[in-house]
Predict the structure.
Amino acid sequence: MIHLLSVWQDIEKQLRAASRVLLLCDYDGTLTPIVESPEAAYLPQDTKQVLQELANQRRFTVGVISGRALDDLKRRVGIKDLVYAGNHGLEIEGPDIYFINPIAEEMRPVFNLMTRVLTKAMATVRGVRVEDKGLTLSVHYRSVEEGKAEEVDNILERVIATARSLGKVIVTSGKKVYEVRPGVDWNKGKAIALLIDKYGKPKTKAVVLPVFLGDDTTDEDGFKVVRKQDGISIYVGEENTNSAADYYLKSPAEVGQLLRMIRGIALKDNL
């Protein structure tokens, strides 16, 4: 894994040579630092400005792909003409695209009920927050007392055991969060592949260069797809040899630096 800023000249050449750039970023831990409460994670104003300027460039398609619910993501980012992919890509809105995974949509009432049951079951553990995201749910335990994480895990397992055994749900773990999703063959990687097909415009022979930045386990599927497309896959955090990404940036602050550098060449070349 290579620190991306150390090979910026190579990255710059790829960006300049591309007919179209599909720039996709995760939200929490990538565009914004991980914070104690998910409600406090807001996009820095300077990062928002850079994303807006890049979205205005004719050869750039810019998007944010996140585990957050689509409406929450759109409210926090608040930029027009962006591609928004919420709930790990189960729901997508953007220029000339509107997508909701049909099986996930059918399971919305199930997840609503599961959220209520989990909220009640987790009431005995101080600091847990169960988030209903419509098509998925999250169990946040960053504020739980040390030593109580196992209790959170046990309660979650008990509540979802039947649904998981039937293949109705899948569970992934992230940074002090459990993500419960419908048991459908869909993830951030498949969502990115859909966007590459959509915005690559093969009829015009405009080959798209995908660039994806993410920081968590749910982003790994996206890194794999981008690598297959000869794109630029970037893990955000300290060097992680277990990641499928080719490059890394140390923090959201370095992500901001990269976005400003990309804006610089885009404005200079009128990309």
Notes: The CA atoms of residues 193 and 228 lie 10 Å apart. The chain has two domains: 2-101+186-269, 104-182. The longest helix spans residues 252-269. The chain has nine helices and 13 strands.
